[in-house]
TrEMBL record:
Organism: Clavelina lepadiformis
Coiled coil: 525-559
Bias (Basic and acidic residues) ranges: 71-85
Stretches assigned to the TTF-type domain: 154-235
UniProtKB keywords: Coiled coil
Residue span of region Disordered: 1-20, 42-88, 624-646
Bias type Polar residues, positions: 42-56
Protein name from the UniProt record: TTF-type domain-containing protein
Keyword Coiled coil annotated: yes
Pfam families: DUF4371
Length: 723
């Protein structure tokens, strides 16, 4: 009984039969060999001509008699001698064969002609995928069997959708039993020249699939494929599927990134948060960024298919939907905007700076840098960056500003203005930031921020006496008490047209709104407080608070303060709004501050008017201090016998609270207005000097012209007289 062949023996037998069949087919002459071999050979490259003619000639030599064979060899030698042009020596022919052979393992030095030839011919002739790969057999340490190259290496399977594509760049070398990268071998740069797929060949079949995937995903291979595709298009080829695949992939990701950038621009324009609590597509907590992308995917088929394929795949999968890519896009977009602003500022040449510090939610103090420059359409103000700041000293802040300007190519000698707040470390005459910058550029005029000046003026006036501080604490406490309960707030809204407002530490316009609402709704607010104090259904603590606020509103001092501050804050607010106009000039700002000083000076003499208006709100018209017994001070032995002057409660309130408040307002305003007057005066002096110099130059030019005319007329008359 005959033994059955094993699987390996069957495969070996099959390969042997296929090899014998190939040898038999190689001996059969081609049909084209009988028609114009000489003419065709002159038009083809040397390797094609030799490859096409070698097989039929060998077969003919074996079939013909020896004499006829010798005659034909002599005729062939004569025909080769008659070939026009330079004779091809054996060495040159060998070199040509070496350069254009379809075995990448035998390629020598690659020149421009070789690249041009294979760009036209393509990689199909160099892959040898029909080979049996017997030369690639390798046995590794610790293994009892041999591994070899297989046809599966030439097919790429997509990891997500399972789509198969042919690796046209992978070529097998029958002489070495190794594989090479066709594109990197011809067009690879220095980054891929040292890899096995270019120099020496790759034959580690144990890790073949992973290494091949790693190579085709590398940047060097992608660049080589793009160069190969470009050269193919230049050569007029149509079959460049491998490069087309890379180009389609690049266009696909460009379309995806374009949509992501549009979403980020939409969120940035509106100041909305980007990220959420998670990064899961379909989650209601994934934030505005991923949420808008999901919404667009409902109407965008490309984005919808991208989300189906790549979303929620985890780390290691490219989707461009992760927070890392999102932050990188934001950083690149911010850098692009900053570069554009810096380019405009450099083109405009002259600029002014404004800086301020503010802590963020992570308690990191940051320095904000803003520049202002003039474009052909008018002046513009641009935010540049946030910079971390460790200390609030003038030297530290000035060094951060100067280093930033230097690193970004802005010459500080072109700075023509500075605008900071009125803090001592910023506006100090000798050691402030403005003084340090002026040492670098003497033309950088310092102009304090007008609105910040008004905020500081109001803050200093409130802190000047305890009466003012207690009044604003009462206003804020009343708002908190009524707004913390929906029932109380609804009762207040049913009676008042203007609802109460809370206080802000920096925006004094909100204080103006809060005091105005209190003054206009005085009676209604007091009635609501009395109802809450008398309501037995309310808690005892609520009734006590309502009664306390009602008693405070029944004091004449509170009514006078509310009436006076309402008038002053309304004027401060209107001035602040006018100063915020981007087109306001320095001269106009100085005039507005001067007008505000006159208004407050006028309010100093209006105490009686404010008192009469307060009595209309508090009918009893008595100051709280009148109910108290006067305290008698102990007289010291060295004091005289003169009687001690005792002020009435009205005079005490007016002298110790009202006048102190008004005088502090005036003093702070006049002190801060001095800086604007100096800047305005310097500007006027410079303008007047410029006009005067211009007039003098024009006058000199006019006189010089007149003298030349008179001299010419005199010379003409003298010549006529002599004739």
């Amino acid at each position: 009984m005959a033994s059955q062949l094993s699987g390996w023996d069957k495969a070996k037998k099959k390969r042997k039969e296929a090899a014998e069949q190939e040898k038999l087919l190689a001996k059969i002459p081609k049909l084209s060999s009988y028609f114009g071999m000489r003419a065709a050979s002159s038009q083809l490259p040397a390797s094609d001509a030799i490859a096409n003619s070698s097989a039929p000639e060998d077969q003919a030599k074996q079939d013909e008699p020896d004499e006829e064979r010798e005659d034909k060899e002599r005729e062939s030698s004569a025909e080769r001698a008659e070939v026009k042009g330079d004779a091809i020596t054996g060495e040159a022919l060998a070199q040509t064969l070496e350069d254009i052979t379809n075995d990448l393992g035998q390629w020598g030095k690659i020149n421009a002609d070789t690249r041009e030839y294979w760009a036209k011919k393509g990689s199909k002739h160099c892959q040898h995928t029909e080979s049996m790969f017997e030369e690639s057999a390798r046995q590794y340490l610790g293994e009892s069997f041999q591994r070899r190259c297989t046809k599966t290496f030439f097919v790429r399977t997509h990891p997500l959708n399972g789509e198969k594509s042919y690796r046209q760049w992978l070529c097998y070398s029958p002489s070495t039993g190794k594989v090479f990268c066709f594109a990197c071998k011809l067009f690879g740069g220095n980054a891929v020249q040292a890899t096995k797929f270019v120099s020496g060949g790759f034959d580690n079949w144990r890790t073949g699939e992973s290494r091949i995937k790693m190579h085709e995903s590398s940047d060097g291979h992608r660049k080589a494929m793009l160069s190969f595709a470009s050269r193919q298009r230049e050569a007029g080829r149509v079959d460049y599927l491998a490069a087309k695949q890379v180009e389609e992939e690049r266009c696909y990701w460009r379309q995806i990134v374009k949509r992501l950038i549009d979403v980020l621009i939409f969120l940035a324009k509106r100041g909305l948060a980007i990220r959420g609590a998670d990064e899961i597509i379909g989650s209601p907590h994934n934030g505005n960024y991923l949420g808008i992308i999901e919404l667009l995917a409902e109407y965008d088929t490309l984005l919808a298919s991208h989300i189906r394929k790549y979303a929620n795949c985890g780390k290691g999968h490219i989707s461009y939907l992760s927070s890392t890519i999102c932050e990188e896009l934001v950083q690149l977009m911010g850098q692009k905007v900053q570069d554009t602003i810096l380019k405009e500022a450099k083109k405009a040449k002259y600029f002014s700076v404004s800086i301020d510090s503010t802590p963020d939610v992570s308690h990191l103090d940051q320095l904000t840098i803003v520049i202002r420059y003039v474009l052909p359409l008018g002046p513009v103000e641009r935010f540049l960056t946030f910079l971390p700041m460790m200390r609030h000293t003038a030297t530290h802040m000035a060094s951060i500003l100067l280093n930033f300007l230097k690193e970004n190519g802005l010459d500080v000698t072109n700075c023509r203005g500075q605008s900071y707040d009125n803090a001592s470390n910023m506006s100090g005459r000798y050691n402030g930031v403005q003084a340090i910058v002026k040492r670098e550029c003497k033309y950088a005029a310092f102009i304090p921020c007008c609105n910040h000046s008004l905020n500081l003026v109001g803050d200093q006036a409130v802190n000047s006496c305890a009466g003012c501080t207690r009044f604003f604490h009462f206003v804020n406490g009343l708002y908190v008490f009524l707004s913390e309960s929906t029932y109380r707030w609804q009762k207040l809204k049913n009676r008042c047209t203007l609802t109460l407002k809370g206080l802000s530490g920096t925006r004094w316009c909100e204080r103006a709104d809060a005091v105005k609402a209190l003054v206009e709704g005085w009676k209604s607010i007091q009635e609501v407080l009395d109802e809450l104090a008398a309501d037995k259904e309310q808690k005892a603590d609520t009734r006590n608070q309502a009664d306390g606020f009602s008693r405070r509103m029944d004091e004449l001092e509170t009514a006078v303060m509310a009436t006076a501050w309402n008038d002053i804050l309304c004027r401060l607010n209107s001035t602040s709004i006018s100063l915020q106009d981007p087109t306001v000039s320095l001269n106009t700002a100085t005039s507005l501050l001067a007008s505000l000083v006159d208004t407050i000076q006028f309010a100093r003499d209006r105490f009686d008017v404010y008192e009469q208006m307060a009595i209309e709100k508090v009918p009893h018209g008595e100051y709280k201090a009148e109910e108290r017994r006067g305290r008698k001070r102990k007289r010291m032995p060295d004091e005289g016998a003169a009687n001690e002057e005792n002020l009435t409660p009205r005079e005490t309130f007016k002298t110790h609270i009202y006048l102190v408040m008004i005088d502090r307002l005036l003093a702070e305003l006049e002190k801060r207005m001095k800086a604007y007057e100096d800047c305005n005066e310097n500007s006027c002096v410079k303008l007047a000097s410029f006009i005067l110099i211009t007039c003098v130059c024009l006058l000199r030019a006019f006189l010089s012209c007149r003298l030349r005319l008179l001299h010419g007329s005199y010379c003409h008359k003298r010549t006529s007289f002599e004739l």
